[in-house]
Amino acid sequence: MTAEFAALSSHPDKVGESERAAADVKFKSISKAYEILSDDDKRDAYDARGMAAFEAGNPMGAEVDLDDLLSQMFGMGMNGVPGGGPGPGKPRKPRKGDNEEQSYTVTLEELYKSKTTRFATRKNIVCKTCRGSGGKDKAKPKECSACHGRGMQHGLKSMGAGLMTQETVICDPCKGTGQVYRDKERCKKCKGERVVEEKKVLELYIPRGSKEGDKIKIEGEADQLPDQEPGDIVFNLVEAEHKTFQRAGPDLMANVNIDLSEALCGFSRILVKHLDGRGIHVKHPRHGSSPLKPGSIIKIGGEGMPHKKSDLRGDLYLLVDVDFPDQNWLKKDKHIEKLKALLPEPGKQIQAETVDEVDYEEDANLDSFGGETAQGGQWEDEDDEESSQPQCAQQ
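Predicted structure:
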Protein backbone atom coordinates (compact mmCIF):
# COMPACT_ATOMS: atom_id res chain seq x y z
CA MET A 1 0.00 0.00 0.00
CA THR A 2 1.46 3.40 -0.95
CA ALA A 3 1.03 6.55 1.10
CA GLU A 4 -0.97 8.14 -1.76
CA PHE A 5 -3.38 5.18 -1.83
CA ALA A 6 -3.74 5.21 1.95
CA ALA A 7 -4.55 8.91 1.90
CA LEU A 8 -7.15 8.51 -0.85
CA SER A 9 -8.81 5.54 0.85
CA SER A 10 -9.10 7.55 4.08
CA HIS A 11 -10.51 10.70 2.45
CA PRO A 12 -13.50 12.06 4.42
CA ASP A 13 -15.63 12.11 1.25
CA LYS A 14 -15.34 8.32 0.93
CA VAL A 15 -16.89 7.43 4.29
CA GLY A 16 -20.27 7.85 5.93
CA GLU A 17 -21.31 10.96 7.83
CA SER A 18 -20.82 9.28 11.23
CA GLU A 19 -17.20 8.37 10.39
CA ARG A 20 -16.26 11.62 8.72
CA ALA A 21 -14.65 13.34 11.73
CA ALA A 22 -12.35 10.40 12.46
CA ALA A 23 -11.55 10.00 8.76
CA ASP A 24 -10.63 13.69 8.54
CA VAL A 25 -8.05 13.32 11.35
CA LYS A 26 -6.61 10.16 9.78
CA PHE A 27 -6.45 11.76 6.32
CA LYS A 28 -4.46 14.71 7.68
CA SER A 29 -2.14 12.37 9.57
CA ILE A 30 -1.44 10.23 6.50
CA SER A 31 -0.88 13.33 4.37
CA LYS A 32 1.64 14.60 6.92
CA ALA A 33 3.37 11.21 7.00
CA TYR A 34 3.71 11.24 3.20
CA GLU A 35 5.03 14.81 3.31
CA ILE A 36 7.77 13.80 5.76
CA LEU A 37 8.62 10.54 3.97
CA SER A 38 9.02 12.27 0.62
CA ASP A 39 11.35 15.00 1.88
CA ASP A 40 14.88 13.96 2.91
CA ASP A 41 15.42 17.00 5.18
CA LYS A 42 12.11 16.48 7.00
CA ARG A 43 12.79 12.78 7.38
CA ASP A 44 16.19 13.51 8.91
CA ALA A 45 14.57 16.01 11.30
CA TYR A 46 12.01 13.38 12.32
CA ASP A 47 14.74 10.81 12.93
CA ALA A 48 16.54 13.29 15.19
CA ARG A 49 13.68 14.83 17.18
CA GLY A 50 10.46 13.02 16.33
CA MET A 51 7.26 15.03 15.83
CA ALA A 52 8.63 17.74 18.14
CA ALA A 53 10.50 18.98 15.05
CA PHE A 54 7.15 19.84 13.44
CA GLU A 55 5.20 21.26 16.39
CA ALA A 56 4.54 24.62 14.73
CA GLY A 57 1.46 24.18 12.58
CA ASN A 58 1.48 20.40 13.07
CA PRO A 59 -2.10 19.09 12.50
CA MET A 60 -1.30 15.76 14.18
CA GLY A 61 0.28 17.16 17.33
CA ALA A 62 3.71 16.37 18.72
CA GLU A 63 2.35 13.38 20.64
CA VAL A 64 1.64 11.38 17.43
CA ASP A 65 4.34 8.80 16.69
CA LEU A 66 4.88 8.48 12.96
CA ASP A 67 6.37 5.00 13.34
CA ASP A 68 3.14 3.83 14.98
CA LEU A 69 1.07 5.41 12.22
CA LEU A 70 3.15 3.84 9.43
CA SER A 71 3.15 0.50 11.21
CA GLN A 72 -0.65 0.54 11.33
CA MET A 73 -1.00 1.54 7.68
CA PHE A 74 1.82 -0.30 5.94
CA GLY A 75 3.26 -2.77 8.49
CA MET A 76 6.59 -0.90 8.59
CA GLY A 77 8.21 2.02 10.35
CA MET A 78 10.43 4.92 9.30
CA ASN A 79 13.42 2.57 9.24
CA GLY A 80 11.72 0.42 6.63
CA VAL A 81 11.62 -2.68 8.82
CA PRO A 82 8.32 -4.62 8.76
CA GLY A 83 6.48 -4.11 12.00
CA GLY A 84 8.24 -0.77 12.51
CA GLY A 85 10.15 0.53 15.47
CA PRO A 86 12.42 -1.59 17.61
CA GLY A 87 10.66 -4.88 16.95
CA PRO A 88 7.94 -6.85 18.72
CA GLY A 89 8.10 -6.76 22.49
CA LYS A 90 10.87 -4.18 22.70
CA PRO A 91 10.23 -0.79 24.34
CA ARG A 92 10.37 2.25 22.11
CA LYS A 93 12.88 4.82 23.27
CA PRO A 94 11.76 8.43 23.37
CA ARG A 95 13.68 10.50 20.87
CA LYS A 96 14.51 13.05 23.56
CA GLY A 97 15.61 12.27 27.09
CA ASP A 98 13.86 13.46 30.23
CA ASN A 99 14.39 16.99 31.46
CA GLU A 100 16.05 17.51 34.83
CA GLU A 101 14.06 20.04 36.88
CA GLN A 102 15.08 21.74 40.10
CA SER A 103 14.11 24.82 42.11
CA TYR A 104 16.39 27.85 42.18
CA THR A 105 15.88 30.62 44.75
CA VAL A 106 16.63 34.19 43.67
CA THR A 107 16.41 37.51 45.47
CA LEU A 108 14.23 40.39 44.34
CA GLU A 109 17.41 42.38 43.67
CA GLU A 110 18.59 39.68 41.25
CA LEU A 111 15.24 39.63 39.47
CA TYR A 112 15.38 43.43 39.21
CA LYS A 113 18.92 43.66 37.81
CA SER A 114 19.31 40.18 36.14
CA LYS A 115 21.84 37.56 37.20
CA THR A 116 24.48 35.39 35.56
CA THR A 117 26.03 32.58 37.55
CA ARG A 118 28.32 29.67 36.78
CA PHE A 119 28.06 26.29 38.47
CA ALA A 120 29.69 22.88 38.19
CA THR A 121 27.58 19.80 37.49
CA ARG A 122 28.20 16.12 36.90
CA LYS A 123 26.35 14.44 34.05
CA ASN A 124 26.42 11.24 32.03
CA ILE A 125 27.71 11.50 28.47
CA VAL A 126 27.89 8.87 25.75
CA CYS A 127 31.18 6.99 26.00
CA LYS A 128 33.50 8.22 23.26
CA THR A 129 35.66 5.08 23.37
CA CYS A 130 32.89 2.67 22.34
CA ARG A 131 30.59 5.37 20.89
CA GLY A 132 27.81 4.21 23.19
CA SER A 133 27.80 0.53 22.25
CA GLY A 134 29.19 -0.67 25.57
CA GLY A 135 31.54 -3.17 23.91
CA LYS A 136 35.03 -3.27 22.55
CA ASP A 137 35.71 -2.63 18.89
CA LYS A 138 34.46 -5.52 16.69
CA ALA A 139 32.95 -7.31 19.71
CA LYS A 140 29.51 -8.79 19.11
CA PRO A 141 26.82 -8.68 21.81
CA LYS A 142 24.71 -11.65 22.82
CA GLU A 143 21.05 -11.79 23.71
CA CYS A 144 20.25 -10.66 27.26
CA SER A 145 19.29 -13.72 29.28
CA ALA A 146 17.28 -11.66 31.79
CA CYS A 147 14.75 -10.38 29.25
CA HIS A 148 15.43 -12.79 26.36
CA GLY A 149 16.22 -9.93 24.03
CA ARG A 150 12.97 -8.05 24.63
CA GLY A 151 14.57 -5.14 26.50
CA MET A 152 11.93 -5.19 29.21
CA GLN A 153 10.73 -7.38 32.02
CA HIS A 154 7.38 -8.11 33.63
CA GLY A 155 6.91 -7.98 37.35
CA LEU A 156 4.28 -7.68 40.06
CA LYS A 157 3.65 -4.45 41.93
CA SER A 158 1.73 -4.20 45.19
CA MET A 159 -1.29 -1.91 45.12
CA GLY A 160 -2.06 -2.29 48.83
CA ALA A 161 -4.85 -4.20 50.57
CA GLY A 162 -3.45 -7.46 49.19
CA LEU A 163 -3.92 -6.36 45.54
CA MET A 164 -1.20 -6.90 42.94
CA THR A 165 -0.83 -5.57 39.43
CA GLN A 166 1.53 -6.50 36.62
CA GLU A 167 3.90 -3.84 35.34
CA THR A 168 6.48 -3.69 32.57
CA VAL A 169 9.85 -2.10 33.29
CA ILE A 170 13.07 -1.55 31.36
CA CYS A 171 15.45 -4.47 31.79
CA ASP A 172 18.25 -3.32 34.05
CA PRO A 173 21.06 -5.70 32.91
CA CYS A 174 20.82 -4.64 29.27
CA LYS A 175 19.36 -1.13 29.87
CA GLY A 176 16.54 -1.86 27.44
CA THR A 177 18.74 -2.85 24.46
CA GLY A 178 18.03 -6.58 24.67
CA GLN A 179 21.75 -7.25 24.24
CA VAL A 180 24.76 -7.59 26.55
CA TYR A 181 28.50 -8.09 26.17
CA ARG A 182 30.61 -10.70 27.89
CA ASP A 183 32.79 -9.30 30.67
CA LYS A 184 36.00 -9.52 28.65
CA GLU A 185 34.33 -7.84 25.64
CA ARG A 186 32.99 -4.83 27.54
CA CYS A 187 34.42 -1.37 26.91
CA LYS A 188 37.20 -0.66 29.41
CA LYS A 189 36.21 2.99 29.68
CA CYS A 190 32.49 2.67 30.53
CA LYS A 191 32.52 -0.97 31.75
CA GLY A 192 29.66 -1.76 29.39
CA GLU A 193 27.42 1.02 30.76
CA ARG A 194 27.65 2.92 27.43
CA VAL A 195 27.92 6.24 29.31
CA VAL A 196 30.55 7.84 31.54
CA GLU A 197 30.34 10.63 34.09
CA GLU A 198 31.74 14.03 33.21
CA LYS A 199 32.16 17.24 35.19
CA LYS A 200 31.09 20.36 33.34
CA VAL A 201 30.77 24.05 34.19
CA LEU A 202 27.52 25.60 32.99
CA GLU A 203 26.28 29.18 32.93
CA LEU A 204 22.81 30.21 34.07
CA TYR A 205 21.39 33.57 32.99
CA ILE A 206 18.27 34.99 34.64
CA PRO A 207 16.84 37.95 32.65
CA ARG A 208 15.79 41.06 34.53
CA GLY A 209 12.07 41.17 35.17
CA SER A 210 11.81 37.40 35.65
CA LYS A 211 9.31 36.25 38.26
CA GLU A 212 8.53 33.31 40.48
CA GLY A 213 7.42 30.28 38.49
CA ASP A 214 9.43 31.19 35.39
CA LYS A 215 11.41 28.31 33.90
CA ILE A 216 14.99 28.90 32.77
CA LYS A 217 16.24 26.18 30.39
CA ILE A 218 19.78 25.12 29.61
CA GLU A 219 19.07 23.09 26.51
CA GLY A 220 20.62 19.69 25.91
CA GLU A 221 22.62 19.56 29.15
CA ALA A 222 20.77 16.74 30.93
CA ASP A 223 22.18 13.20 31.04
CA GLN A 224 22.94 11.64 27.67
CA LEU A 225 21.92 8.22 26.40
CA PRO A 226 22.99 6.53 23.15
CA ASP A 227 20.70 7.13 20.16
CA GLN A 228 18.79 9.80 22.02
CA GLU A 229 18.78 13.59 22.10
CA PRO A 230 19.58 14.73 25.66
CA GLY A 231 16.93 16.57 27.64
CA ASP A 232 17.24 20.02 29.17
CA ILE A 233 18.16 21.23 32.64
CA VAL A 234 15.21 23.31 33.81
CA PHE A 235 15.40 25.74 36.75
CA ASN A 236 12.08 26.74 38.35
CA LEU A 237 12.54 30.19 39.86
CA VAL A 238 11.50 30.75 43.48
CA GLU A 239 11.41 34.37 44.66
CA ALA A 240 12.80 34.91 48.16
CA GLU A 241 10.79 37.10 50.54
CA HIS A 242 12.11 40.66 50.72
CA LYS A 243 12.29 42.70 53.94
CA THR A 244 11.28 45.99 52.29
CA PHE A 245 9.40 45.40 49.05
CA GLN A 246 6.38 43.36 48.06
CA ARG A 247 5.87 42.48 44.41
CA ALA A 248 2.64 42.15 42.44
CA GLY A 249 3.31 41.55 38.74
CA PRO A 250 5.47 44.44 37.52
CA ASP A 251 4.61 46.70 40.49
CA LEU A 252 6.37 47.11 43.83
CA MET A 253 5.05 48.25 47.20
CA ALA A 254 6.87 49.34 50.36
CA ASN A 255 5.84 50.74 53.73
CA VAL A 256 7.36 54.10 54.72
CA ASN A 257 7.15 55.97 58.02
CA ILE A 258 7.05 59.74 58.39
CA ASP A 259 6.78 61.96 61.46
CA LEU A 260 3.68 63.92 62.36
CA SER A 261 5.52 67.15 61.57
CA GLU A 262 6.38 65.78 58.09
CA ALA A 263 2.77 64.71 57.51
CA LEU A 264 1.53 68.22 58.33
CA CYS A 265 4.36 70.43 57.14
CA GLY A 266 5.90 68.42 54.33
CA PHE A 267 9.38 67.00 53.72
CA SER A 268 12.09 66.60 51.11
CA ARG A 269 14.16 63.44 51.71
CA ILE A 270 14.91 59.86 50.66
CA LEU A 271 11.97 57.65 51.60
CA VAL A 272 13.29 54.26 50.49
CA LYS A 273 16.41 52.62 49.08
CA HIS A 274 15.63 50.86 45.80
CA LEU A 275 16.68 47.36 44.72
CA ASP A 276 19.63 48.71 42.74
CA GLY A 277 20.88 50.83 45.66
CA ARG A 278 19.46 54.18 44.50
CA GLY A 279 17.80 56.42 47.05
CA ILE A 280 14.23 57.40 46.03
CA HIS A 281 13.92 61.09 46.97
CA VAL A 282 10.41 62.52 47.41
CA LYS A 283 9.48 66.16 48.00
CA HIS A 284 6.14 66.84 49.69
CA PRO A 285 3.96 68.81 49.63
CA ARG A 286 3.72 69.67 46.01
CA HIS A 287 1.68 72.76 45.18
CA GLY A 288 -1.88 72.26 46.43
CA SER A 289 -1.19 68.92 48.17
CA SER A 290 -3.04 67.92 51.33
CA PRO A 291 -1.36 66.69 54.51
CA LEU A 292 -0.49 62.99 54.44
CA LYS A 293 -2.58 60.68 56.62
CA PRO A 294 -1.95 57.14 57.86
CA GLY A 295 -2.75 54.87 54.92
CA SER A 296 -2.02 57.49 52.25
CA ILE A 297 -0.45 56.16 49.04
CA ILE A 298 2.44 57.78 47.19
CA LYS A 299 2.64 56.37 43.64
CA ILE A 300 5.88 56.78 41.68
CA GLY A 301 5.49 55.86 38.03
CA GLY A 302 8.16 53.79 36.30
CA GLU A 303 9.99 52.74 39.48
CA GLY A 304 8.60 49.21 39.69
CA MET A 305 10.00 45.98 38.23
CA PRO A 306 11.28 45.96 34.64
CA HIS A 307 9.32 44.08 31.99
CA LYS A 308 11.25 41.25 30.37
CA LYS A 309 12.70 42.10 26.95
CA SER A 310 11.40 45.68 27.22
CA ASP A 311 12.36 49.11 28.54
CA LEU A 312 8.99 49.43 30.28
CA ARG A 313 8.72 49.28 34.05
CA GLY A 314 5.95 48.94 36.57
CA ASP A 315 5.14 51.46 39.30
CA LEU A 316 6.27 51.88 42.90
CA TYR A 317 3.61 52.30 45.59
CA LEU A 318 4.64 53.72 48.98
CA LEU A 319 2.16 53.06 51.80
CA VAL A 320 2.47 55.86 54.36
CA ASP A 321 2.30 55.39 58.12
CA VAL A 322 2.53 58.41 60.43
CA ASP A 323 4.56 58.19 63.63
CA PHE A 324 2.83 60.21 66.36
CA PRO A 325 4.81 61.79 69.23
CA ASP A 326 5.31 59.97 72.52
CA GLN A 327 3.12 60.67 75.52
CA ASN A 328 3.59 64.05 77.28
CA TRP A 329 5.59 65.53 74.41
CA LEU A 330 3.78 68.83 75.05
CA LYS A 331 4.50 69.61 78.68
CA LYS A 332 3.44 73.25 78.89
CA ASP A 333 -0.11 74.52 78.47
CA LYS A 334 1.06 77.49 76.43
CA HIS A 335 2.52 75.16 73.83
CA ILE A 336 -0.75 73.27 73.60
CA GLU A 337 -2.66 76.51 73.07
CA LYS A 338 -0.25 77.62 70.33
CA LEU A 339 -0.65 74.28 68.54
CA LYS A 340 -4.45 74.46 68.76
CA ALA A 341 -4.33 77.93 67.27
CA LEU A 342 -2.39 76.62 64.25
CA LEU A 343 -4.55 73.54 63.61
CA PRO A 344 -8.01 73.62 62.00
CA GLU A 345 -10.90 74.04 64.41
CA PRO A 346 -12.78 70.89 65.45
CA GLY A 347 -15.83 69.92 63.43
CA LYS A 348 -19.43 69.89 64.57
CA GLN A 349 -19.83 68.43 68.05
CA ILE A 350 -22.28 65.65 68.99
CA GLN A 351 -25.21 66.91 71.06
CA ALA A 352 -27.16 64.87 73.65
CA GLU A 353 -29.75 65.67 76.37
CA THR A 354 -28.01 63.49 78.95
CA VAL A 355 -24.22 63.49 79.20
CA ASP A 356 -22.05 61.14 81.28
CA GLU A 357 -18.41 62.00 81.82
CA VAL A 358 -16.48 58.72 82.05
CA ASP A 359 -12.94 57.52 82.75
CA TYR A 360 -10.97 55.57 80.13
CA GLU A 361 -7.87 53.40 79.72
CA GLU A 362 -5.18 54.96 77.58
CA ASP A 363 -3.24 51.79 76.75
CA ALA A 364 -6.21 49.57 75.91
CA ASN A 365 -6.32 47.15 72.95
CA LEU A 366 -8.78 44.76 71.35
CA ASP A 367 -7.26 41.57 72.76
CA SER A 368 -10.07 41.17 75.30
CA PHE A 369 -12.85 42.47 73.04
CA GLY A 370 -15.80 40.05 73.20
CA GLY A 371 -13.90 37.70 75.50
CA GLU A 372 -15.96 38.04 78.69
CA THR A 373 -19.09 35.95 79.18
CA ALA A 374 -22.20 37.95 80.14
CA GLN A 375 -23.06 37.60 83.84
CA GLY A 376 -26.54 37.46 85.39
CA GLY A 377 -29.50 35.14 85.92
CA GLN A 378 -30.86 33.00 83.12
CA TRP A 379 -34.04 34.03 81.36
CA GLU A 380 -36.84 31.54 81.87
CA ASP A 381 -39.53 31.32 79.24
CA GLU A 382 -43.11 31.25 80.52
CA ASP A 383 -43.93 28.33 78.24
CA ASP A 384 -41.04 26.34 79.76
CA GLU A 385 -42.33 27.15 83.25
CA GLU A 386 -45.82 25.95 82.45
CA SER A 387 -44.55 22.77 80.81
CA SER A 388 -42.65 21.88 83.99
CA GLN A 389 -45.89 21.73 86.10
CA PRO A 390 -47.44 18.29 86.88
CA GLN A 391 -50.13 17.30 84.40
CA CYS A 392 -53.23 15.23 85.09
CA ALA A 393 -53.26 11.79 83.54
CA GLN A 394 -55.79 11.28 80.77
CA GLN A 395 -58.77 9.11 81.70
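Summary: Residues 340 and 346 are 10 Å apart (CA to CA).
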